[in-house]
Design brief:
Blueprint lengths: L3 H25 L51 E4 L6 H7 L4 H8 L12 E4 L2 H9 L12 E9 L5 E8 L6 E11 L5 E8 L4 E2 L4 E8 L8 E11 L5 E2 L2 E10 L5 E9 L5 E11 L5 E7 L11 E8 L8 E10 H4 L2
Antiparallel strand pairs: 1-2, 3-4, 4-8, 5-6, 5-7, 5-9, 10-16, 11-12, 12-15, 13-14, 13-16
Length: 340
């Protein structure tokens, strides 16, 4: 038998589902349903690490090694020894060996030629032998020019030292500069007691010109029997840097007492240019012609224009004996050379 209720049951369930869906849609009309977007994940922060690189102190570059200078032996020429015989004088001995009396006297430290004795030994200087021996060495130092050393005088200083005064005479045919003098004191056996050096007072020693010097021993040296005074260095001068057209006039020397002399004068520029760094070199001589005082002074104005002049005043204190005469020389520089 056909059961109508049973026959319609399979259709009821889909119909109910359709009705429910329609109701759901109907109730949702007029509303906007916004779906929340998928959130974008925040980026993971990057770890920042400051890397500190330790800076090591720079390695010092070692200075280049400078080897010790090669020892160069001093050339000692073989001396000629003369034994004084009866009747001989310093003049006759000097003539025999073709040297000047002053050179022979200075080479042997003879303070008074009248005290020579028979049998005394004298050293005869031989410049040519010295030159040959020096040229035979490997030392590149040029041979010093043979300049005469004259009128040497020894005296004690007020502080207990010893001063040696004298002058060099440029008897060569070349103007010289950087003239340095050395004094060596020797005992009876020829051993060195003391030695000292000094520069000539004139920067430029012209041909046939004389320049005084003063060498000081700060402390009184031991007892010495003789001395040697030699020119250690003298080089040809660059005369273009010097101003030589200066004359000293109206030189006046006033004795202010036995130990003091006031010297006045004036320096005149007789050349075509302006002279700068002008100085006056004074040399005082005793009655025997020995140098007993020297001084270098500036005039009132050390810049003297062309045709101009400047006065000067100086006080000399002689090392011994009265002053017989005073010589004065002026020296200066060219403006172009002084500004370099």
């Amino acid at each position: 038998m056909f059961d109508r209720q049973t026959q319609t049951r399979p259709f009821i369930r889909p119909v109910l589902l359709w009705i429910g869906l329609t109701f759901f849609l109907a109730t949702g009309c007029g509303r906007v349903i916004t779906l929340a977007p998928t959130p974008t994940p925040a980026p993971t922060p990057t770890l920042s690490v400051d890397i500190v690189v330790a800076t090591l102190p720079p390695t010092s570059t070692p200075a280049p090694y400078t080897p010790e200078p090669t020892f160069t032996p001093t050339v000692t020429p073989t001396p000629i020894i003369h034994v004084i015989r009866a009747g001989e004088t310093l003049l006759s001995i000097a003539s025999q060996y073709n040297v000047s009396v002053s050179t022979l006297q200075d080479a042997n430290g003879i303070l008074d030629p009248r005290l020579l004795q028979v049998g005394q030994e004298l050293i005869i200087p031989r410049q040519e032998e010295y030159d040959e021996a020096l040229a035979a060495t490997l030392t590149p130092t040029p041979t010093p020019l043979p300049i005469a050393v004259e009128n040497v005088h020894f005296s004690e200083t007020m502080i207990g030292g010893l001063s040696v005064l004298g002058e060099v005479w440029n008897n060569t045919d070349t103007p010289l500069e950087q003239v340095r003098i050395g004094v060596t004191l020797l005992d009876d056996a020829g051993q060195i007691v003391a030695s000292a050096e000094g520069l000539a007072a004139l920067d430029l020693v012209d041909v046939n010109e004389r320049a005084p010097f003063a060498v000081l021993f700060g402390e009184r040296p031991g007892k010495f029997a003789r001395y040697q005074v030699v020119v250690l260095r003298a080089v040809p001068a660059y005369v273009g840097s010097y101003y030589r057209d200066l004359e000293v006039g109206d030189l006046t020397v006033v004795n202010e007492g036995y130990a003091s002399y006031t010297v006045t004068g004036r320096v005149k520029n007789i050349g075509p240019e302006e002279a700068v760094q002008v100085q006056v070199v004074l040399t005082a001589y005793d009655p025997l012609g020995r140098v007993v005082a020297t001084r270098k002074v500036e005039p009132d104005y050390n810049v003297v224009p062309r045709g101009g002049e400047s006065t000067f005043t100086a006080v000399l204190a002689p090392a011994g004996g009265p002053v017989a005469r005073v010589a004065a020389l002026a020296q200066g520089r060219r403006l172009s050379a002084a500004s370099q």
